[in-house]
Amino acid sequence: MQFTYPYFLFALFTILIVIAIHLFNFRRFKVEYFSNVKLLQDILLKTKKESQLKKLIVLLLRILAITCLVFAFAQPYIPRKNQKSESGNLITVFVDNSFSMEANSTSGSLIKESVDAAKKIVDAFSYNDEFLLITHDFLPQHTHISNKEEILTQLDEIQITPQSRTLQEILLFKENAAFNSKMKNEIVYYISDFQKNQFDFSALLRDTLSSNFLVPITAAQVNNIAIDSCWFSAPVFKKGYNVLLNVRVQNYGETDVVKLPLKLYVNGAQKGLTALDIKAKSYADAQISYTINEQGTQTAYLEINDAPINYDDRLYFTYPVFDQSSIISISGGKPNRYIDALYGKDSLFQLTVMPVAQIDYSLFPETALLILDQVESFSSGLQDQLVKYLEGGAQILLFPPDTLDRTSWNQFLSSVQLPAIESLVKQPLKMGEINYESPYYKDALEREEEQIEKPTILQYYRFGSVQRSMELIVNLENGEPLLSYFPVGTGGVFLSAVALNDLFGNAHKHALFFIPLHNIAIQSQVQPQLYYTIGKDQHVLVPRKQTQRDEVASLKSRNNGEQFIPEQQNRGNDLAVSFHNQITTPGFYDLTFGDDTLSTWAMNFNRRESQLEYFSKKDLENITKNSTAKVEILNFQVKDLTKSVADKLTGIALWRYFIMLALFFFLAEVLVLRLWGRAKY
After folding, report:
1. Confidence band, pLDDT 50/70/90 cuts, at residue 376
2. Distance CA 384, CA 387 (A)
3. Confidence of residue 152 (pLDDT cuts 50, 70, 90)
4. Backbone φ and ψ of 135, nearest 5°
5. Under 8 Å between Cβ of 188 and 90
6. Which end of the chain is more exposed for a tag (fewer CB within 10 A), N or C?
7. Which pLDDT score is estimated for 680?
8. Dihedrals φ, ψ of 507, to 5°?
9. Measured distance CA(435)–CA(483) in Å, rounded
10. CATH class of the structural domain 89-221+612-637
């Protein structure tokens, strides 16, 4: 047996006071004279013996009562095996406050049961211990060590959050928050419904330093249907065009769903309606076709009705509708009539041609595609602007001339990690294999290339070995690249081995070469993401006009009118916007500079919470039973959770038994004093 507070045992010296009182009886006796005391002698002897025995029994009862009382305050316990003996604990309590904890339970909701369980766990520890509270919010105040009163206050402030963290993220947050604690014993309680898609216990099972307790809060099985994602079949949005929207709806339940209505709203008006049949534990894809009737940013959302879980029943998204895509062609000589025929005559594009000696760099941020047509050399200023342009997510198409400054060209190619030009090969070749899986050829041809007469290449540039990822769009018959794509920054470079003139052959007059060039221009229009995920997507990069350099952007919700200023930094021609958990509700958000709206974003809840599959208590036991780490299951539904926590922490607590014994001995003393020696007639 050991004691939690052994210093209380010094109070046992009070027993000496009790003994002293019983040994020294200062009561004075009064003498009474009788004529004959012979008849009283037997009574006197008998009463004296009983009185002495009674006093000894009372003394013993008082000693036992005081001893039990002192032991109770010292809190004795029978220690568990392998129990650490260091004093002081750091108690970390993780309370799952994600959407799944809104589910109903016998006491109201799972989140209420979790908070109540956390309070009972905290009550099992002393005021000398240190505490940490962790939720899915990862709040700044939860990074500081708290005392017992502070963590109880923090528990009352817990609210349901759209955030959803994995166990690995929770462990990393805990380690950083616990760094400043000086306590040697670390005890961690995880109170959650333990959704399978959030909890990978591999890292926890390797933790041999702390004692970990899993506290499963049982949730009733509920069927759930969620709009998982959406995407367009084609990336081009023009007024009057018919577009095809693809939608994926997931059935996480155990029963099939028949004829579930799915609605599409664009700019507040219903644009489409379809019905879905979805098998249990599966998904179904639907397509909704509609016509674009407006220009500018389109705000849209998809909607189903799936009670009682409805946070994933609506998916917001936005997309821009441009009148024309801006293209700039920087010419090293005379304007190229083939480029003008390909882009200048097409209503989809707005082509601007400028000589290399008169470049207007201010137009770069608003340009979808930048073409360098037979530029002989790159100045240092041009190279710097091109690198910034690529970092902003734009696209560059390079056509080398027949005579060029190889040093200048290779210097630029090296700056963006592209292969260097080795030589100009003057050898007639045919166009080779076409990459039909490339998005610039895919679905563009109705018959195989063997049935099509391919263009002839009279000369081409040979490039060095490729040291980075690339996409080969089309090659020559000898296997060398003719047109290839290299991702650079958030943008990319299309590198052609030939120029668009007769010296290089007739590729510039052939449809097989014009198809990818046309699709490059179509797909190069910078399209923002359709939607972002709250808690997951915390940073967005958007183009910024030159006139907005000195202004501060603000973010405003169209749903409730809330407005705040996010963190923002200039990055070349773009603005990097960061909103650190400032967005908590789904909907549309406008990024504005005064009255000017720069961009509109759609924010949605994370679909990770939609999959309502949980680890059962038996699953958790199977996971932890063979672990070398200190991981145990704690039943929160026991009659006295605080006592259960204390017993698991220190062993079998005995102070309650000593309290009961002390009361028993005091009661026995009272009965002895009251009933012993009472006359009987």
Report:
1. very high
2. 5
3. very high
4. -130, 180
5. no
6. C
7. 46
8. -60, -35
9. 10
10. alpha beta
Name the CATH architecture for the domain at 532-604: Sandwich (2.60)
- Write the pLDDT tens digit of every residue in 510-532: 888 988 998 888 877 656 789 99
Q: Which of 400, 334, 416, 320 is nearest to 366 (CA)?
A: 320
Give the distance from CA 251 to its chain's centroid: 22
The CA-atom distances, in angstroms, between 229 and each of 47, 196, 235, 340, 606 are 96, 21, 16, 39, 11
pTM of the prediction?
0.68
Is-contact 498 462, C-beta < 8 A? no
Which CATH code, of 3.40.50.1000, 2.60.40.10, 3.40.190.10, 3.40.50.2300, is assigned to 225-322?
Answer: 2.60.40.10
Strand partners, 475: 481
Give just the sign of the alpha carbon dihedral 149, 153, 156, 160. Answer: negative
Q: Is 215 in contact with 636 (CB distance < 8 Å)?
A: yes
> Which tokens belong to 452?
């099509």
Residue partners of 673: CB distance under 8 A and separation at least 6: 58
- CATH 3.40.50.410 region(s) of the chain? 89-221+612-637
Locate 350 and state its tokens: 């707005």
pLDDT winner (highest mean) among 67-81, 274-288, 319-333: 274-288
Q: What is the largest CA-CA distance in the chain?
A: 157
Instruction: Identify the CA nearest to 428 among candidates 505, 329, 526.
Output: 505
Task: Tell me the one-letter amino acid at 538.
Answer: Q
Alpha helical stretches, state H, 75-195: 110-123, 148-156, 167-177
Exposed, middle or buried: residue 371 (CB in 10 Å: 0-12, 13-18, 19+)?
buried
